[in-house]
Write a structure and sequence with these properties.
The structure is a single chain. The longest helix has 16 residues. The protein is mainly α. The chain is 72% helix and 0% strand. The chain contains 9 helices and no strands. InterPro entries: TPR-like_helical_dom_sf.
Length: 178
């Protein structure tokens, strides 16, 4: 699993340091993400989980609620702190990584948000949501060619999947502006 994660993170790192998104084979990336998901699904025994996961579910829920309330109050610094804590204590929960990424994005910390969206994508490779938000971040940092590639990937991931039709529509609209 370390090798797979390292491979994808190096791809994401390359995206942030100048390589074109289309320099990397998207099919290969999707295959890697699917393999990561399969590996993560196989971790079902509590003793196989990291030590830091031994936090009560009540504490997790309270911390998420606190972060969410901070988000609603536009207090993104506190939201980032809470969502970061959650990603450390429940690293296999994609929605915590998405929450962290969203809070970072609201602070215009686009490169950090890209990293958090990549983590969410590693955990939930089938969802085009993180890829769409990555495109938004890429557009914000003037990486329009990469943003276009990501938006095209969102549309491909959404193809024939009615539950993703709204995000595909948003991707098409943004693609027309990028």
């Amino acid at each position: 699993m370390v090798t797979i994660g390292s491979s994808l993170m190096s791809v994401v790192g390359n995206k942030l340091t100048g390589d074109k998104l289309n320099d990397y084979n998207m099919d290969k990336m999707l295959a890697i993400l699917a393999q990561v998901n399969k590996t993560l699904e196989n971790i079902s025994n509590p003793q196989d989980r990291p030590q830091c996961e031994r936090v009560s579910q009540q504490e997790i829920q309270a911390r998420y609620e606190q972060g969410y309330q901070a988000w609603l109050a536009d207090n993104y610094i506190t939201a980032v702190e809470d969502f970061s804590w959650l990603t450390l204590h429940r690293p296999l929960e994609p929605h915590f990584h998405l929450a962290l990424a969203g809070a970072l994005q609201m602070q215009q910390e686009f490169i950090l948000a890209l990293s958090a969206y990549a983590s969410a994508l590693l955990l939930e490779a089938k969802s085009p949501g993180p890829v769409y938000q990555m495109a938004v971040c890429l557009h914000a940092i003037k990486r329009d060619a990469d943003a276009r590639e990501a938006l095209q990937m969102v549309i491909e991931m959404s193809y024939m999947r009615p539950e993703y039709a709204p995000i595909a529509e948003k991707a098409n609209i943004l693609l027309g502006k990028v």
